[in-house]
Amino acid sequence: MRFSLLCLMCGVMLSWGMPAFAQVNDTAQTSDRVRVAFINPGYGDRGFWKDVRDTMQVAADQFGFDLFVFDSNRDQKKMIDSAQSAFDMNPPADYIIAVNEHQQGSRIVLEAEKRSIPVIMLLNGLTKPQKENIAQVTGDMSGLIFTLTPDNERAGFEIAQSLIDGVRLSHTGGLPRTICLLSIAGDRHTPASLQRLEGLDLALKQFPVLNEKRRLVANWSFDEAYRQTAAWIAGGQCLDAVWAANDDIALGAIAAIEQAGMTAGKDVFVGGLNWSEKGMQNVANGKMTMTHGGHFLAGAWVMVLLNDYIAGVEMLHDHPEISFRMEAINQGNLAHFERIFGTRDWKNIDFSQFSLEHQTSGRDYYFGVEGLAHAISKD
C-alpha cells in the first residue's frame, strides 16, 4: 500500500551481540510517555543527519514523546552497536526508528520482532528481497508498521536536468553537441543512493546531450569526491558537469575543480542534494546549479505519523509505504527558502499542524514547503 504525499538479508553477516555503546542517558523515570529509539546512521553534531535528528527532537517534544538517539557517525560497525543499544534500553523502547543504510534494516526488523518492538523505516526503506526474506522468517511484515521515504528518483533526475540548464544558460549559441558528465554516487547499497542513480539514468536516456564519461562512488564523502574529481581532471579527461549524490560530494568536486584552476558554475557545472548550509551558499554564489532536498524534515514528519498511528488514523494501519517530494533550491527560489529555513530554528515550526489526528476522513498528508511557511510561529 503506498500513499503519495504532496509537497540482513543482503548477504552481509552482522552480529548484534557486539558490545554496545549507548549515546543517550537512559535513566529517565518510567512514565506513560511513549519511548522512541532512533538508530541514526550519521553524525549527531553536524551535517544532514544532525538536521534529521534536530527536527525529530523538536517534533517529539511537541507530541510528548521521549526520544532516545543513538548516533553511528557513518560507521557500519558503530551502527550495529547503536542498534544493540536501542534493543538494550531499559525500560524498552515502544518504537524503533531505523534507516536501511547499507541494507542493515533486515536485521533490525528481525531483532525488534523478537522483542515485540514495532519498527518504522525512515528515509531508506527495505528492498523487495529484504521484505521477502523477512516474511519467510516471520510469516508476515507486521513488525514494520510503516515506511517514510522521499522521492529520490525524481531528485536524481532533476539534478541532472539542472546541469543541462546551467550549460545552456552559459552558452549564448545554445547547448553544445555533448556535455561531458562525471557522476559521483553515494554508495553501492543504500536504497537512497540507488534510487537517485535511477533518476540519473532516466535523465541520461531522455537527454542524450549528457554524455556520462564515468560513474564513481564516494561514500557520501567530501574528501573522497575531491580525490576522485582531482584524479579525473589530472588524467586529462573532458569535464563539463558533475552529478553529485549529495552536497558533500558536490563540494568536494568543486574544491578539486577550483584547485585545477577552473571555475565551478562557469567551466564546470555541479549539482548536489541535502539543502546543507554550504550547499545553499554555493547555490547563492553560482558554483552549484542546485541543492535538492528538504528530506531532513522527515525527522519531524515521522513524529507526525507516529502520533497519528498511535491516535488511530486509519490510513496508517495497513503498513503503508509513504513517499514525499523533495524540493530543489536554485538561485531563482533561494531567497524564499532562506526566509523559511535560514535560521534552522525548528522550534518555531508547529509540526502538529501537519497531523490528521483531528481532521475529517478523506484528507491526505501535505508535507510541503508552503505548509511549513504557514506553520512557523509569528511570535
Describe this structure in words.
By secondary structure, the chain is an alpha/beta fold. The protein has two domains: 2-150 and 295-327 and 349-375, Response regulator (Rossmann fold, 3-Layer(aba) Sandwich), CATH 3.40.50; 152-273, Rossmann fold, CATH 3.40.50.2300. Helix content is 39%, strand content 17%. The protein has helices spanning 47-63, 76-87, 105-114, 128-138, 152-170, 191-206, 222-234, 247-259, 277-284, 298-311, 334-341, 369-375, and strands at 2-5, 35-40, 66-71, 95-98, 119-122, 144-150, 179-185, 210-217, 241-244, 269-273, 291-293, 321-324, 327-329. The chain has a seven-stranded parallel beta sheet, sandwiched between helices. α5 crosses α6 (191-206). It is globular, with a radius of gyration of 21 Å. Residues 1-29 have low confidence and may be disordered.
